[in-house]
Predict the 3D structure of the following.
Amino acid sequence: MSTTKMPATNSNSDLSAEKNLKPSASHSLTLRVKITNTPGMLGKLTSLIGEVGGDIGAIDIHGFENDAIIRDITVKVRDSEHGEKLVIALKKLEGVEVVNVSDRTFLMHLGGKIRVTNKVPLSTRDDLSMAYTPGVARVCMAIHNEPENAYKLTIKRNTVAVVSDGTAVLGLGNIGPEAAMPVMEGKAMLFKEFGKIDAFPICLATQDTEEIIKTCKHIAPGFGGINLEDISAPRCFEIEARLKEELDIPVFHDDQHGTAVVVLAALINSLKIVKKEIGSLKVIVSGVGAAGVACSKILMNAGVQNIIGFDRMGAIYKGRGEHMNYMKDWFAEHTNPTVFKGSIEEALEGADLFLGLSGPGTIKAESLSKMAKDPIVFAMANPVPEVMPEEAAPYVRIMATGRSDYPNQINNVLCFPGIFRGALDCHARDINEEMKLAAAYAIAASVQDSELNEDYIIPGVFNPQVAQKVAEAVAQAAQKTGVARRYKNDDFQEQ
């Protein structure tokens, strides 16, 4: 029997913090084991898995061999190291032979996760002559004579380029374009699943700002929009700003604005529960990178007046000279109205919202006790948040993270499929602030007032209504602000 061998992983890159992580499908194994066919053996095996900390899913019979039963057992573990520990323990169990171990995540990625398929058949000579030569020449000339026809007669009307240079991939950092591909493929899957958009992963073998801008401009004719992904700050700010200025299709850096939109949506609903006005809030932001700056901007556009941000060196304030860049300079000019220079623990005194966009263990749970009445904590570092929900529970009214195994997951998938769907539907030239705000309020409105509670401030990622509501709101905002090129009454045949 063949054995599926998966690449070894570096436990340091797993960002595991084992004590804080639960077994997860992201680290799940299929164990093929040969079990002696005697009473109680299966019970001994499952008990051992539980003792080691594994979470058992499906148990299936694969076959029989002499006096043994061959079973496939699916087990969730915490990380790669935990999985190895589990397998070692099973191999020591008398009466059990571990035949094969398959990492289910790696199996999903074998050969990539996406593919291109034809929309129309090529079964006859007539099909070929219309789809390709000579008939296609007439379509080419129709676009040449009227470039706007590209939206009607090509995939442009429904395509997004997912562009990355691999410099800020998840929590892994600068791992390069090839290693970034699985993430970009996953992004393309989400576009298709939730927005019915054909997205293509484009990972660039350059980290030069000008080269990235130039490349995006060169490929733009084939796309209805560009989604920038996992590009390190501060370069991501310039790349997005330049492309928004120089292209006539929507450009959206999801790490910035997708996070920001969903954060605002979660805050809108949180404020309904704690009965506070957005203009009265004191907000502490941990992490002033791409997401931190974008979140602060959208919160200010929504009415927040008092934000204090922190990076590794401490508070960001007007006049700070060390470890700054042009976006931090902007941040210092527009936030921290009292020019606070103390620690983040001191800043939490009287704060209404802690927004974490930094790393694990940034704050101590006890520090949250200093916050104002009914505090809100969005601890969004992944996979280990700035403070664990269990630790924060005694001190906070509403808690949200970026994780799927806790309530209130603030996930970008609630945002970008609907935003691009709406932008593509109206042939938008841009995704502006009004469209982002419209998206946030549409996401928030997807939770009915009767459903709203401390553990349900944001809709689930599989809620089929979210993307549709966001798309409609975004298209309307685009039309109101004059960036749409197509309106509902336009003569246009939908897909």
Observations:
- Confidence is low (pLDDT under 50) at residues 1-19, 491-495.
- The CA atoms of residues 356 and 475 lie 31 Å apart.
- The chain is about 35% helix and 15% strand.
- The first strand starts at residue 24 and ends at 36.
